[in-house]
Amino acid sequence: MKRSKRLMPVLELAESKEKQTARILSESRQKLEAAQRNLSSLIGFRDNYSAQFQRSGNAGLASRQLIEYRIFLAKINTAIADQEKAVHAAQTELRKRQAEWEAARKHSLGIRRVFEQSLSEERRSDEKKQQTEQDERAARRSNGGILADFI
């Protein structure tokens, strides 16, 4: 069996692994983007809530309303801190998946290069073999004519 035929399943497996890691990388990128959007949304909500509180605070607020505002603001800030952690975790995951994809890509390209070199070597070998066979046939034809003259 030719080397290229033996390498074909290895190449297919490497390319499949590369596609799989690319898909996972894409999913990680989407998760990071979603986490960043959620963080941005929470920060926007907190800023709007604070601005609204400031406007209503200028008109005067009861102490109960002030306490509720501080409690709610603390909850929003906790949610923002949690979301910042989620963004950081998604960034870390994305970097990990990027490295995995790069390694799979490098491996796949290496296997492809070996596969293509094998194909080139096989073509050269086949061409050389065909040329040798043609030379032998031509030599037999020319020698056959010479031998017939001696007989």
TrEMBL record:
Pfam families: FliJ. It comes from the Bacteria. It is a peripheral membrane protein. InterPro entries: Flag_assembly_chemotaxis_eff, Flagell_FliJ, FliJ. Its main location: membrane. Residues 119-151 are annotated as: Disordered. Residues 120-139 have a biased composition (Basic and acidic residues). Residues 73-100 form a coiled coil. It is found in: Cell membrane. Gene3D superfamilies: 1.10.287.1700. Keywords: Bacterial flagellum biogenesis, Bacterial flagellum protein export, Cell membrane, Cell projection, Chemotaxis, Cilium, Coiled coil, Flagellum, Membrane, Protein transport, Transport. Belongs to the FliJ family. PANTHER family: FLAGELLAR FLIJ PROTEIN. This is Flagellar FliJ protein.
